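Pasting as-is:
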Amino acid sequence: MATVNRRGRTWQLNWSDADGQHRVSLGPIAKQEAEIIRREKELELLTGRRVSGSAVTLAEFAVDYLAWYSTQYPSTYDRTEGIIRLQLLPRFGNEPLDAIQPGEVTRWVAVRSQQIAPASVTKEVRVLRAMLNKAVQWRVIGEFPLVGYQAPPERASKAVEFYSSEQLAALYLAAGPVWAPVWQFMANTGLRRNEALNLKLSDVMADRVRVESTDDKPTKSRKWRDVPLNARALEAVGRLRGKRQDGFLLPQVFPRSVSRAFEKAALRASLGGSLHTLRHTFVSHLVMAGVDLETVRRIAGHSTITTTLKYAHLAPGHLTSAVTRIAL
Protein backbone atom coordinates (compact mmCIF):
# COMPACT_ATOMS: atom_id res chain seq x y z
CA MET A 1 0.00 0.00 0.00
CA ALA A 2 1.27 3.45 -0.90
CA THR A 3 0.28 6.74 0.75
CA VAL A 4 1.11 10.40 0.36
CA ASN A 5 1.16 13.07 3.01
CA ARG A 6 2.07 16.72 3.08
CA ARG A 7 5.10 17.92 5.03
CA GLY A 8 5.30 21.69 4.98
CA ARG A 9 5.23 22.77 1.33
CA THR A 10 6.25 19.37 -0.06
CA TRP A 11 4.54 16.01 -0.53
CA GLN A 12 6.00 12.71 0.62
CA LEU A 13 5.37 9.27 -0.89
CA ASN A 14 5.40 6.34 1.56
CA TRP A 15 5.27 2.59 0.88
CA SER A 16 6.43 -0.74 2.23
CA ASP A 17 7.82 -3.75 0.39
CA ALA A 18 10.09 -6.74 1.07
CA ASP A 19 12.99 -4.38 1.68
CA GLY A 20 11.18 -2.45 4.39
CA GLN A 21 9.57 0.99 4.62
CA HIS A 22 10.40 3.77 2.17
CA ARG A 23 9.84 7.51 2.14
CA VAL A 24 10.53 9.73 -0.86
CA SER A 25 10.05 13.48 -1.06
CA LEU A 26 8.07 14.51 -4.15
CA GLY A 27 8.84 18.21 -3.78
CA PRO A 28 6.40 21.19 -3.77
CA ILE A 29 3.93 19.71 -6.27
CA ALA A 30 0.13 19.93 -6.40
CA LYS A 31 -2.05 17.44 -4.52
CA GLN A 32 -3.32 15.99 -7.81
CA GLU A 33 0.25 15.34 -8.93
CA ALA A 34 1.04 13.54 -5.68
CA GLU A 35 -2.07 11.39 -6.02
CA ILE A 36 -1.15 10.31 -9.56
CA ILE A 37 2.32 9.26 -8.37
CA ARG A 38 0.76 7.40 -5.42
CA ARG A 39 -1.55 5.46 -7.73
CA GLU A 40 1.36 4.64 -10.01
CA LYS A 41 3.36 3.27 -7.06
CA GLU A 42 0.30 1.36 -5.80
CA LEU A 43 -0.07 -0.38 -9.17
CA GLU A 44 3.67 -1.11 -9.25
CA LEU A 45 3.44 -2.77 -5.83
CA LEU A 46 0.44 -4.88 -6.90
CA THR A 47 1.75 -5.99 -10.30
CA GLY A 48 5.49 -5.93 -9.75
CA ARG A 49 6.08 -3.68 -12.77
CA ARG A 50 6.17 0.03 -13.41
CA VAL A 51 3.21 1.66 -15.09
CA SER A 52 3.70 1.97 -18.83
CA GLY A 53 2.79 5.30 -20.29
CA SER A 54 1.41 3.54 -23.37
CA ALA A 55 -1.56 2.34 -21.29
CA VAL A 56 -2.81 5.87 -20.59
CA THR A 57 -4.73 7.68 -23.29
CA LEU A 58 -4.99 11.43 -23.68
CA ALA A 59 -8.67 11.28 -22.71
CA GLU A 60 -7.87 9.42 -19.49
CA PHE A 61 -5.05 11.76 -18.62
CA ALA A 62 -7.20 14.83 -19.37
CA VAL A 63 -9.37 14.11 -16.32
CA ASP A 64 -6.47 14.47 -13.87
CA TYR A 65 -4.84 17.25 -15.87
CA LEU A 66 -7.96 19.44 -15.89
CA ALA A 67 -8.57 18.81 -12.18
CA TRP A 68 -5.04 20.07 -11.51
CA TYR A 69 -5.33 22.95 -14.00
CA SER A 70 -8.55 24.25 -12.45
CA THR A 71 -6.77 24.88 -9.15
CA GLN A 72 -3.60 26.32 -10.65
CA TYR A 73 -4.94 28.51 -13.47
CA PRO A 74 -8.63 29.25 -12.86
CA SER A 75 -8.56 32.43 -14.96
CA THR A 76 -7.74 30.49 -18.15
CA TYR A 77 -9.44 27.21 -17.28
CA ASP A 78 -12.53 27.74 -19.45
CA ARG A 79 -10.52 28.34 -22.61
CA THR A 80 -8.10 25.48 -21.96
CA GLU A 81 -10.89 23.06 -21.08
CA GLY A 82 -12.68 24.04 -24.29
CA ILE A 83 -9.59 23.40 -26.40
CA ILE A 84 -9.06 19.99 -24.82
CA ARG A 85 -12.72 18.93 -25.03
CA LEU A 86 -13.58 20.31 -28.47
CA GLN A 87 -10.29 19.92 -30.37
CA LEU A 88 -7.71 17.68 -28.75
CA LEU A 89 -9.91 14.84 -27.50
CA PRO A 90 -11.82 14.29 -30.77
CA ARG A 91 -8.49 13.95 -32.60
CA PHE A 92 -6.10 12.41 -30.06
CA GLY A 93 -8.32 11.31 -27.17
CA ASN A 94 -8.12 7.56 -27.80
CA GLU A 95 -4.38 7.55 -28.44
CA PRO A 96 -1.84 6.52 -25.79
CA LEU A 97 0.09 9.57 -24.65
CA ASP A 98 3.45 8.32 -25.82
CA ALA A 99 2.04 7.30 -29.23
CA ILE A 100 1.22 10.86 -30.29
CA GLN A 101 3.89 11.59 -32.88
CA PRO A 102 5.21 14.80 -34.51
CA GLY A 103 4.03 13.73 -37.97
CA GLU A 104 0.38 13.38 -37.05
CA VAL A 105 0.44 16.64 -35.09
CA THR A 106 1.90 18.36 -38.17
CA ARG A 107 -0.91 16.99 -40.36
CA TRP A 108 -3.55 18.00 -37.82
CA VAL A 109 -2.10 21.52 -37.61
CA ALA A 110 -2.23 21.80 -41.42
CA VAL A 111 -5.96 21.05 -41.35
CA ARG A 112 -6.67 23.35 -38.40
CA SER A 113 -4.76 26.19 -40.09
CA GLN A 114 -7.36 26.13 -42.88
CA GLN A 115 -10.15 26.49 -40.33
CA ILE A 116 -8.99 29.02 -37.75
CA ALA A 117 -6.46 31.83 -37.26
CA PRO A 118 -2.79 30.84 -36.90
CA ALA A 119 -2.64 32.27 -33.38
CA SER A 120 -5.50 29.99 -32.32
CA VAL A 121 -3.75 26.95 -33.82
CA THR A 122 -0.60 27.87 -31.91
CA LYS A 123 -2.62 28.03 -28.69
CA GLU A 124 -4.06 24.56 -29.28
CA VAL A 125 -0.61 23.09 -29.91
CA ARG A 126 0.67 24.75 -26.73
CA VAL A 127 -2.09 23.10 -24.71
CA LEU A 128 -1.23 19.69 -26.19
CA ARG A 129 2.49 20.17 -25.48
CA ALA A 130 1.72 21.33 -21.92
CA MET A 131 -0.33 18.18 -21.28
CA LEU A 132 2.43 15.92 -22.58
CA ASN A 133 5.10 17.76 -20.59
CA LYS A 134 3.01 17.38 -17.46
CA ALA A 135 2.58 13.66 -18.20
CA VAL A 136 6.36 13.34 -18.22
CA GLN A 137 6.67 15.37 -15.01
CA TRP A 138 4.06 13.17 -13.30
CA ARG A 139 5.87 10.04 -14.57
CA VAL A 140 2.87 8.86 -16.54
CA ILE A 141 5.14 8.52 -19.58
CA GLY A 142 8.89 8.27 -19.69
CA GLU A 143 9.73 10.64 -22.53
CA PHE A 144 8.20 13.65 -24.24
CA PRO A 145 6.85 12.25 -27.55
CA LEU A 146 6.99 15.44 -29.64
CA VAL A 147 10.75 15.92 -29.56
CA GLY A 148 11.77 17.65 -32.77
CA TYR A 149 8.31 19.00 -33.57
CA GLN A 150 8.38 22.60 -34.77
CA ALA A 151 5.15 24.57 -34.51
CA PRO A 152 4.44 26.88 -37.47
CA PRO A 153 5.55 30.47 -36.81
CA GLU A 154 2.95 33.14 -36.18
CA ARG A 155 3.01 35.49 -39.15
CA ALA A 156 0.41 37.98 -37.97
CA SER A 157 1.47 40.95 -35.87
CA LYS A 158 -1.24 43.39 -34.86
CA ALA A 159 -1.47 46.30 -32.48
CA VAL A 160 -3.55 45.78 -29.34
CA GLU A 161 -7.18 46.83 -29.83
CA PHE A 162 -8.83 49.11 -27.28
CA TYR A 163 -11.86 51.35 -26.90
CA SER A 164 -12.00 55.13 -27.06
CA SER A 165 -13.85 57.15 -24.43
CA GLU A 166 -16.69 57.65 -26.92
CA GLN A 167 -16.96 53.92 -27.54
CA LEU A 168 -17.05 53.21 -23.81
CA ALA A 169 -19.87 55.71 -23.38
CA ALA A 170 -21.82 53.86 -26.07
CA LEU A 171 -21.10 50.55 -24.34
CA TYR A 172 -22.36 51.77 -20.97
CA LEU A 173 -25.53 53.11 -22.58
CA ALA A 174 -26.19 49.81 -24.35
CA ALA A 175 -25.46 47.71 -21.26
CA GLY A 176 -28.28 48.91 -19.05
CA PRO A 177 -28.32 49.61 -15.30
CA VAL A 178 -27.18 46.15 -14.14
CA TRP A 179 -24.05 45.73 -16.23
CA ALA A 180 -23.04 49.31 -17.10
CA PRO A 181 -21.30 49.93 -13.72
CA VAL A 182 -19.54 46.56 -14.05
CA TRP A 183 -18.02 47.50 -17.42
CA GLN A 184 -17.20 50.99 -16.13
CA PHE A 185 -15.42 49.52 -13.10
CA MET A 186 -13.42 47.04 -15.18
CA ALA A 187 -12.46 49.62 -17.80
CA ASN A 188 -11.12 51.92 -15.08
CA THR A 189 -9.22 49.27 -13.09
CA GLY A 190 -8.08 46.81 -15.75
CA LEU A 191 -8.96 43.82 -13.57
CA ARG A 192 -9.14 40.42 -15.22
CA ARG A 193 -12.53 38.72 -15.26
CA ASN A 194 -11.89 36.35 -12.34
CA GLU A 195 -10.08 39.04 -10.35
CA ALA A 196 -13.16 41.25 -10.60
CA LEU A 197 -15.59 38.43 -9.81
CA ASN A 198 -13.60 37.40 -6.73
CA LEU A 199 -13.40 40.95 -5.38
CA LYS A 200 -15.13 41.34 -2.03
CA LEU A 201 -16.49 44.56 -0.60
CA SER A 202 -13.86 44.28 2.13
CA ASP A 203 -11.20 44.51 -0.60
CA VAL A 204 -12.49 47.92 -1.69
CA MET A 205 -10.88 50.84 0.14
CA ALA A 206 -11.40 54.57 -0.12
CA ASP A 207 -8.86 55.06 -2.91
CA ARG A 208 -7.94 51.61 -4.16
CA VAL A 209 -8.90 47.95 -4.42
CA ARG A 210 -6.71 45.10 -3.25
CA VAL A 211 -6.42 42.09 -5.55
CA GLU A 212 -5.14 39.11 -3.56
CA SER A 213 -3.89 35.73 -4.75
CA THR A 214 -5.00 32.77 -2.65
CA ASP A 215 -4.52 29.01 -2.91
CA ASP A 216 -8.06 28.43 -4.13
CA LYS A 217 -8.34 31.61 -6.21
CA PRO A 218 -4.87 32.56 -7.45
CA THR A 219 -4.26 35.52 -9.73
CA LYS A 220 -2.51 34.90 -13.04
CA SER A 221 0.79 36.27 -11.72
CA ARG A 222 0.35 34.57 -8.30
CA LYS A 223 0.94 37.96 -6.64
CA TRP A 224 -1.27 40.46 -4.87
CA ARG A 225 -1.46 44.11 -5.91
CA ASP A 226 -3.26 47.36 -5.13
CA VAL A 227 -5.08 49.10 -7.98
CA PRO A 228 -5.82 52.82 -7.44
CA LEU A 229 -9.39 53.99 -8.05
CA ASN A 230 -10.02 57.04 -10.21
CA ALA A 231 -13.21 59.10 -10.09
CA ARG A 232 -15.01 56.96 -12.66
CA ALA A 233 -14.07 53.74 -10.87
CA LEU A 234 -15.31 55.18 -7.55
CA GLU A 235 -18.55 56.16 -9.24
CA ALA A 236 -19.00 52.58 -10.46
CA VAL A 237 -18.14 51.18 -7.01
CA GLY A 238 -20.82 53.36 -5.47
CA ARG A 239 -23.44 52.05 -7.88
CA LEU A 240 -22.36 48.44 -7.43
CA ARG A 241 -22.01 48.54 -3.66
CA GLY A 242 -25.64 49.50 -3.15
CA LYS A 243 -26.85 46.42 -5.02
CA ARG A 244 -24.85 43.78 -3.18
CA GLN A 245 -25.92 41.83 -0.13
CA ASP A 246 -23.56 38.85 -0.42
CA GLY A 247 -20.25 40.52 0.36
CA PHE A 248 -19.02 40.66 -3.24
CA LEU A 249 -18.72 43.76 -5.41
CA LEU A 250 -19.86 42.20 -8.69
CA PRO A 251 -22.85 39.96 -9.46
CA GLN A 252 -21.93 36.37 -8.62
CA VAL A 253 -22.58 34.51 -11.87
CA PHE A 254 -20.56 32.04 -13.92
CA PRO A 255 -17.50 33.65 -15.52
CA ARG A 256 -18.73 32.73 -18.98
CA SER A 257 -22.05 34.46 -18.24
CA VAL A 258 -20.17 37.70 -17.59
CA SER A 259 -18.42 37.39 -20.93
CA ARG A 260 -21.72 36.70 -22.71
CA ALA A 261 -23.35 39.71 -21.09
CA PHE A 262 -20.49 41.87 -22.33
CA GLU A 263 -20.69 40.45 -25.85
CA LYS A 264 -24.41 41.28 -26.02
CA ALA A 265 -23.81 44.86 -24.85
CA ALA A 266 -20.90 45.32 -27.29
CA LEU A 267 -23.08 44.05 -30.14
CA ARG A 268 -25.86 46.50 -29.25
CA ALA A 269 -23.26 49.29 -29.18
CA SER A 270 -21.90 48.17 -32.58
CA LEU A 271 -18.49 47.42 -31.08
CA GLY A 272 -16.14 44.51 -31.62
CA GLY A 273 -13.85 43.02 -29.03
CA SER A 274 -14.44 40.92 -25.95
CA LEU A 275 -14.56 41.45 -22.20
CA HIS A 276 -10.74 41.35 -22.13
CA THR A 277 -10.72 44.40 -24.40
CA LEU A 278 -11.65 46.44 -21.31
CA ARG A 279 -8.33 45.42 -19.77
CA HIS A 280 -6.50 46.36 -22.98
CA THR A 281 -8.35 49.68 -22.86
CA PHE A 282 -7.25 50.42 -19.31
CA VAL A 283 -3.58 49.67 -20.01
CA SER A 284 -3.62 51.49 -23.35
CA HIS A 285 -5.03 54.69 -21.88
CA LEU A 286 -2.52 54.60 -19.02
CA VAL A 287 0.34 54.43 -21.52
CA MET A 288 -1.17 57.16 -23.72
CA ALA A 289 -1.45 59.36 -20.63
CA GLY A 290 2.32 59.13 -20.22
CA VAL A 291 2.49 56.71 -17.27
CA ASP A 292 5.86 54.93 -17.31
CA LEU A 293 5.78 51.28 -18.35
CA GLU A 294 7.08 49.87 -15.06
CA THR A 295 4.28 51.60 -13.15
CA VAL A 296 1.78 50.32 -15.71
CA ARG A 297 3.15 46.80 -15.28
CA ARG A 298 2.70 46.91 -11.52
CA ILE A 299 -0.84 48.31 -11.66
CA ALA A 300 -1.93 45.86 -14.35
CA GLY A 301 -0.33 42.89 -12.63
CA HIS A 302 1.78 41.79 -15.59
CA SER A 303 4.26 39.17 -14.43
CA THR A 304 6.96 40.52 -16.76
CA ILE A 305 7.62 43.80 -18.57
CA THR A 306 7.43 41.90 -21.88
CA THR A 307 3.63 41.95 -21.78
CA THR A 308 3.56 45.65 -20.97
CA LEU A 309 5.86 46.41 -23.89
CA LYS A 310 3.05 45.45 -26.27
CA TYR A 311 1.57 48.84 -25.46
CA ALA A 312 4.80 50.86 -25.73
CA HIS A 313 3.92 52.22 -29.17
CA LEU A 314 1.06 54.15 -27.58
CA ALA A 315 3.36 56.27 -25.39
CA PRO A 316 3.18 59.96 -26.47
CA GLY A 317 5.76 60.51 -29.17
CA HIS A 318 7.96 57.67 -27.97
CA LEU A 319 9.29 56.87 -31.44
CA THR A 320 9.70 60.46 -32.53
CA SER A 321 11.50 61.51 -29.36
CA ALA A 322 13.87 58.54 -29.71
CA VAL A 323 14.89 59.45 -33.26
CA THR A 324 15.32 63.18 -32.56
CA ARG A 325 17.99 62.43 -29.98
CA ILE A 326 20.49 61.89 -32.76
CA ALA A 327 21.60 64.08 -35.67
CA LEU A 328 23.89 62.27 -38.09
